[in-house]
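Dear support,

I submitted the protein below through the web form. The confirmation email said the job was done, but the results page showed an empty box. After a refresh the structure appeared. I'm attaching both so you can tell me whether what I see now is the final result or a partial one.
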Amino acid sequence: MKNSLQPGLTFEFKYLVPENKTVPYLFPEAPEFQLMPQVLATGFMVGLFEWACIKMLTAHLDWPEEQTVGIGFTLNHLAATPSGLTVRIKVTVEKVEGKKITFSITADDGVDKISDATHERFVINAAGFNKKVAAKKEEVFAKFSNFGLPPNR
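What the results page shows now:
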């Protein structure tokens, strides 16, 4: 992490909402979602906010060796945004506590304020993190690859 990462930093990100970021596309295998309105899905909005924070952070990290993972979110979804509108996201670094970074986020769609949020991210070493995830996956698949029977050792 670079010394430039300090509370008070701001970043603005704009995103034109395509149809495939509306509720029916969130989980295409969920028939209930297929009947929902074609507006920006809250799940995609969360991802959009994470993306904005990551874009802001890359200049303040030893990217891509250092990356961040999301560890917390508090948000509201105040208004529906149909595809074709542009969402403007404003991100502010509120706190830097060691490797934990806290952001405040506001977003609007040019008509309505659509969200206020707080997001927390944690700085990781990408190679080390990916190694731990691979080991976890290997352990789980080894455990259950013998039709649920204990693995032969």
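Response: this is the final, complete result; the empty box was a page-load delay. The beta strands are 10-16, 66-75, 86-97, 100-108, 113-125.
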